[in-house]
Design brief:
homodimer, alpha/beta, 434 Repressor (Amino-terminal Domain), Rossmann fold, 3 domains, 6-stranded parallel sheet, 6-stranded mixed sheet, 12 strands, 42% helix, DNA-binding
Chain lengths: 334, 334
DNA sequence: ATGAAAGCGCTAACAT
DNA sequence: ATGTTAGCGCTTTCAT
């Protein structure tokens, strides 16, 4: 038996306005006795306000969308958790969507979120896509991007990672340990992440006066399969190398595996450094040295930024950009 | 500039009723020419219906809640993905919530979901809780439970895993390989999962005429830390054992690590079998033999079941129960 | 085949 | 300090 605000008003013998005001803490002008009475009845009767009706008039749903490629990809659960934690703190709910980095699905989801009238969207991708996306403008929903550099009217903020600096640290570490012929296996160079990391790789090499050699760059995808394939290619091509810097941990882990299967010792023969610091990184043998991305924080900050934008109704600020630092986790593979 | 159904009606020179009917495929009585015209205008003008308004009258939001302990726990991303895939197929959105298995948070979220008027809730837990939960009845939302055995008016279905059979297979496998003194390290025995697995463990032992010895049972939590702790206890107590069957993979992986650090070879000295088959299981050294839970399927089936219940308005069926089978993944640790 | 109108439950401007 | 009332955008019953 569903109660409405009307029922509460009747039971408390006041008008629905009064009830509404009390429920929304707009009760400067309500007498304490009335407030108490109403509150008591609300509690006793187990009344649940209908957000639909409220949203219809207030034009906000206290819900935000989270679009990611795939929650089952070990990179995203932490990020999602960070996002949800902040949202929950602020009284928002999160609708999550998996796009598999597929443009059609992205459009479909943006549409769905627009229909559900989410107040804003946090958009994270893994790689791949580069161009602009018209559907961003669907329904004019404020958007905060994670790790994706892209312009649109509705993009109100970005949360990025300092890929250049992170990669620089990782490669420099390898160099410091004495490795000299360092291969870079990474995802597609169309992605801003891969490009940033490549720049960091180059910077470190330069600092050590080591010539940049294109044959040492293997760009494919941010996937285990690519790590295996790239390592095999390297071995087949007979390129001399003593270390591998990987675009992410999935690649690094499969590279280690492939190399070990071929009889190499890690880190004695070949040093390996990854990027991300997924949970697995500290569980493999040898434990993986890697550049840690602050995933939880990225999700958390993105939602924080979004909510700030949402609730700062008046001021039409500049687009905000947050750049997070990475951290080198030195373990056993280097 | 937001368009409403009224704008479309005006532009098409028809009534809003007509537009509404066409949009909802209740167009038996609409002339094809009108339909086409309206559809064209809808498309051209980029009209997005306001779900809030619709939900207010239809009493359904096409949104369901997913409550889990922690998306960052490797058990849940796959499950969440399965749930979201099915939901998306059926035109539903998913709001996800992390409770950390904390009762207060659960209540808070159930409340939030009730306010947001989700059509139903899928509820998965990890362990721990046993008693009933009054707030389940908040807002009378249909619930489907995953892996949790609990009664309530609103629980319309359950998706369970055959824990007994799974554990039986795992332990029998160890026995078949010649191991005889098998320790069982698992989560709290208050959880139905741990109890089911214990029963399976006992059944296998019995079949091999091996006496059940309580000192071989270590019940703590489904966490890495407990795996380390339990393995150390075992070593300290000087109990003779040649195999460990673990309540989940997190425990198994940390047990392997602890044992290896103490100089044991896996699987030569000690065989280890886990439960779950999380991604990490096939990446550790040695690769973990484990009982695979169909996580993706659990999420998928749960949402499927829930939607079936939601859309079968009339018939007040029995509570439905789906029991999924596990699969033994034989790898290198046994 | 189409339209008029009531009403879903709530907020907010305006009265009193 | 409290109440009246007009919508928010849509679906649905009942007319025509």
């Amino acid at each position: 038996m569903k109660l409405t605000i009307k029922d509460i008003a009747r039971m408390a013998e006041v008008s629905i306005t009064t009830v509404s005001m009390i429920l929304n803490n707009k009760d400067e002008n309500i007498s304490p006795s009335t407030r108490e009475k109403v509150l008591r009845i609300v509690k006793e009767s187990n009344y649940i306000p209908n957000t639909m009706a409220r949203s219809l008039v207030t034009r906000q749903t206290k819900t935000i969308g989270l679009i990611i490629p795939d929650i089952a990809n070990p990179f995203f659960p932490e990020l999602a958790r960070g996002a949800e934690d902040k949202a929950s703190e602020a009284g928002y709910g999160i609708i999550f969507c998996n796009t598999d980095d597929d443009i059609e699905k992205e459009e479909k989801y943006i549409n769905m979120l627009a229909e559900k009238m989410v107040d804003g969207i946090v958009f994270a991708h893994s790689a791949k896509r580069t161009g602009d996306l018209a559907s961003y403008d669907r329904g004019n929903i404020p958007i905060v991007l994670i790790d994706r550099d892209m312009e649109s009217e509705n993009v109100k903020g970005k949360v990025l990672v300092n890929n250049l600096e992170g990669a620089y640290q990782g490669v420099k570490h390898l160099l410091d340990r004495g490795y000299r012929r360092i291969v870079f296996i990474t995802g597609a160079l169309t992605s801003t992440t891969a490009m940033g990391r490549l720049a960091g790789y180059q910077k470190a090499l330069q600092e050590y006066n080591i010539a940049y050699d294109e044959r040492y760059i293997k760009a494919g995808q941010y996937k285990s399969e690519w790590g295996i394939e790239a390592a095999k290619q390297l071995l087949r091509e007979g390129i001399a190398f003593d270390a591998v810097f990987c675009g992410n941990d999935l690649i690094a882990i499969s590279v280690i595996k492939t190399l070990k299967d071929s009889g190499f010792s890690i880190p004695e023969d070949i040093g390996v450094v990854g990027f991300d610091d997924i949970q697995m990184a500290s569980m493999v043998e040898p434990e993986l040295t890697t550049v840690k991305q602050p995933n939880y924080e990225m999700g958390y900050k993105a939602v924080e930024l979004l909510i700030e934008v949402l609730e700062k109704h008046g001021t039409q600020e500049e687009q905000r950009k947050i750049i997070l630092d990475t951290e080198l986790m030195v373990r056993k593979s280097s």
